[in-house]
Amino acid sequence: MSSYITEGFFKLQQYQFQIHLGGIIDLLSHHLYSGPHVFIRELMQNGVDAIQARKQIEEEHQGRMDIQVVDARDDLPPTLVFEDNGIGLTEEEVHRFLATIGESSKRNELAVRRGDFIGQFGIGLLSCFMVADEILMITRSAREAGHPAVEWRGKSDGTYEVRLMETDVSPGTRVYLRARKGMEAYFTKDQVGKLVRHFGDLLSTPIYLSHGDWTERINDRRPPWERVYVSSEEERRSYLEYGNDLFGQHFIDYIPLRSEAGGVVGAAYVLSQATSPKVKSHHRVYLKGMLLSDQVENLLPDWAVFVRCVVNAEHLRPVASREGFYENEELEATRTVLGETLRAYLIRLAERAPHRLQDIIQLHHMAICSLAAHDEECFRVFGDFITFETTMGRMTLGDCRKRYDTIRYASSVDEFRQIAQVAASQNLCILNAGYVYNRELLSMLEQVEPDLQVEQVDAANLTHHLEDLTLEEREKAFLLLRTADLTLQPYRTASDIKKFEPTTLPTIYTSNEQANFARQARLTKELADDTWGGILNAFENEYASSQYAQLCFNFKNRLIQRLMKIQDRTVLKRVVEMLYVQALLMGHHPLSDKEMALLNQGLLQMIDAVLGQEGDFE
Amino acid sequence: MSTDYRQRIEEIIDAADGEESDRAVAALEEAVRLADVHQDIEWGFKARESLVQVANFSGHGDKSLVAFSWILAQIDKNPEYEDRYLRYDLMWRYKWIASSLTNFPHISKEQILNVVEDMERRYKERGLSMRAVERIRYSLAKEFGWEDKVEEHFERWQSLPQDGSQDCEACETDFIMDHYLFHRNDLDQALEIARPILEGRLSCIGVPGNTLTTLMMELFEAGRVEEADRMQRKSHRYATKNADRLWAAGKHIQFLTLTDQLPRAIRIFEKMASAAVKSRELSNRHTFIRGARTLFLRMADRGRKKVKLRLATDFPVACDEPYRYDVQALGDWFSWEAERVADLFDARNGTSDYHDELKEDLELMKKIQPLPRKAKVE
Ligand SMILES: Nc1ncnc2c1ncn2[C@@H]1O[C@H](COP(=O)(O)OP(=O)(O)OP(=O)(O)O)[C@@H](O)[C@H]1O
Ligand SMILES: [Mg+2]
Question: Which of A161, A181, A263, B190 is the most buried (most CB within 10 A)?
């Protein structure tokens, strides 16, 4: 390729890119901005910046913005006028900044302190073309006293006109927009008022909206963190009311936020409704008083799911769409500080109002667990307050840790159920780690507290640890066990006998993951057609052959004692079947058709027996 | 926490959504049990539907399969359940299930073919394209050693219409690439086909991870080690996500061993070993076992006697002091296990492919190609 372009063959000529404004506007409106309504935000931002620029040369200057809605009249469409008493523009600046896309006065030598401004890309004004075909701007610079006012007319086809004006106007800028056909909805008093309030309610520069004879100050309410309070009740009320109004939702508490990094002030509100672990909180964030977005996600650490914030930031950098922040060091630092603040709040709460903390954790249980399970930092914050079901009742992880050197857990709900009664009667505390995230939380605990022992117990293990019978006792139980093995064979369950507490418990049914799976395959097989039935059967055989479920009789139980004296095998068989079904029911296992039939038969026989006795009396 | 079982089931389903972990599978099994105890068909459907998905993508194809067959059976009994209770397209998922069957050597050839016929029938009943079915027949021909039919299936597959019931475009592209690699032995053409994947224009759950892993080994065998290494680094995370990726993890271990990057191979091994030991997706697991076998045989070749590994206590090879394992014992166990499983598959398939692969693995060990120095920096 390069051989074609050697000098001498061709004279390289430079061309200018031709920019098709329509295409760019389309790009901005459909891919950068969230909708046409943002033109109001962009105009307000420019006004705020202009006032800020003027303050840099006239410290005492009192800024002010006026927005006027003029209704449609005759065949003139409705019009908006945006006015500010900011820095204005000279003729030369008009050519340079207004007429060149991507040029901005806020990014070069003119911008003494660039961080003072919101604008930086030099494209904001273009957003007006989403709603109007023409932008008319009348501006007079405050920099050079003698400079005349300038009129600039920019059209959406990319052409513009500039004219010097003779009339005398005070320094500042006015922008006129006439609604394009179909866009009138953005030019009504209500809609404009709503949007101006939405974007600018935190601005300290006063904004006035007028319509005919009517004028109103839009942003006269200051946020709670800028007010002074005489009592803490008053402060609390003020914060909560503000949050309620802003988000249209009720909160249970608030946490004032302040961070040097990012220049952030604001408040975090504690949500009163449960949050899902998958949904991040959406925060409302202002940049230099202008609303950036009410959907910001990256302002707080991931674990802070239980709050929703409203903050104003002075130094964070917006992305071009102006709807979020750049992920940079400053943002990272801000997040750390805000995270610390929230954590300090929780720790204080744990000391002063532990029940309130419990409430919060209960409410956001799933979300908090999911985060604490994967995030060490979050675990350190919440870990101790997370509750587990244990064989000794519900307990927080903190309590377990204080009381026991070894934390024992069962790894499935099923296993926990099998163990619970026996463990409790031996004063053994075992945690149910069968619910989602529980086991991850325990591994996190292990990681955070290396000195602590964390140990899994399974049901089969537990029965191993139960007391064995003497040889003579075993002999007594021989017939029972033999009959039980034969009876339970079709159910892939083996039998055993041990001594354990509570003595009221005749049996424990234990199984494990494999045996459970085999059981599930068997239950499904009852429904399935031949094609699938064969496959399910193969699975059942494969998994059940190595791992049987087990029915363990309690030698200390009176019923079992009586059972061991019975010699009649048919009676034994029937009782074993009943004990088996009963153990399944106690363990909340779904019954197969065959097991259901056993249950029915057994009950009927029992009723029969009872009636038989009755009959004898007559 | 809730006392109502429906709420509990719903919580579990929500929490498990997108989790793809062993815990999520265990929790969903509990949800299934809850629904069944209460004989609640509706929630039985919902819990199983999630279980099918989560189990399939976390290396528990057996559980996915049982749950799926329950759903099929219920729908056969009462067809209107399908619209009423299912959130996702059942036939779309049939592909996952049908293609996972070969993973289990105790399922016979005949049983597998019957299922594919069942799938075909149901696809026909619904007027769906046979493309997805043909795709599975292709895999079966490969698995059962019907090499002469492979090209035929491929061509038929290509000619069948795409109506949305087939695999996603990324997976199909990956499949075409595989065909060029393993049937037409044309690496350059395969790379060309994979280009949209490698350039990031096509992706899904399995792609590009799968694609990169496959190409890694093929490039290695073609002597293009540095390119292979780039593929490895790009798919490293993919290969260690969960038990579903044991196949990829095994390939990575093998590759890293063959390029003399043992510490990196060990790291992957440690991360995935406990999942591998427990996994019941035997062919998926088998690739891991093969990788580990290569790793420990290689270490033994280099005269290493002991190795420190952070493994869970349920690992089937005992350690002599905590975390210290005998290299020879590890090599033995993985070799033995690899042979045992290869027997199962070769017996079922009536081929010797699985054993041939084990021999090829040993051959490859004679062709260690360390990375050129500069490429080694992490
Ligand atoms: N109300 C105003 N007063 C003074 N100058 C203005 C005003 N509005 C716009 N300008 C000038 O026009 C330039 C372009 O405005 P525009 O909104 O397109 O870009 P910007 O504000 O610099 O950056 P951004 O694209 O981030 O908004 C500004 O840099 C500024 O010099
Ligand atoms: Mg601007």
Answer: B190
Q: φ, ψ for residue B88 (rounded to 5)?
A: -115, 165
In sequence order, what E strands does A349-503 have? 387-390, 393-396, 406-410, 430-432, 453-456, 493-498
Residue among A366, A532, A590 minimizing CB distance to B73: A532
Cα of A50 from ligand 2 centre, angstroms: 10
Mean pLDDT of B241-260: 96
- Does A534 contact B33 at a Cβ distance shorter than 8 Å? no
A74 HSE (CA, 13 A, CB side): 1
Q: What is the pLDDT of residue B1?
A: 39
Q: Which of A97, A128, A287 for mutating ligand 1's site (highest number of atoms within 8 Å of CB)?
A: A97
For every residue of A377-406, which 3-state class applies, written as one string?
A: HHHHHHHHHCEEEECCEEEEHHHHHHHCCE
* Distance set, CA B296 to CA A38, A49, A185, B356 (Å): 63, 67, 73, 20
The residue extents of the domains of chain B are 1-88, 240-373
Residue A272's CB: how many other CB atoms inside 10 A?
A: 14
> CA-to-CA distance for B281 and B301, rounded, in angstroms?
30
Q: What angle do CA A158, A160, A165 make, to 5 degrees?
A: 165
CA distances from A472 to A297, A476, A477 (A): 70, 7, 9
Contact assignment for B30 to A517 by CB distance below 8 Å: no
Nearest partner of B55 among B23, B33, B86, judged by Cα? B23
Cα A193 to Cα A208: distance, rounded to the nearest angstrom? 10
Does residue A173 carry a pLDDT above 90?
A: yes
The bridge status of strand A307-313 relative to strand A283-287 is parallel
Residues of A in contact with B1 (CB under 8 A): 365
Q: Is A83 in the pocket of ligand 1 (CB under 6 A)?
A: no
Interface pTM, i.e. ipTM: 0.86
Nearest to A457 by CA among A504, A422, A498: A422
pLDDT, tens digit (0-9, with 9 covering 90-100), for B267-276 = 999 999 989 9
Residue B273 · residue B232 · CB < 8 Å: no
Return all residues near B376 (Cβ < 8 A) that are at least 6 apart: B261
Q: Is the CB of A127 under 6 A from ligand 1?
A: no
How far apart CA A205 and CA A55 sit, in angstroms, is 12
Torsions phi, psi of A545, nearest 5?
Answer: -65, -35
How far, in Å, CA of B108 to CA of A491, rounded?
A: 24
Among the listed residues B332, B335, B331, B326, the one whose alpha carbon sits nearest the alpha carbon of residue B307: B326
pTM score: 0.62
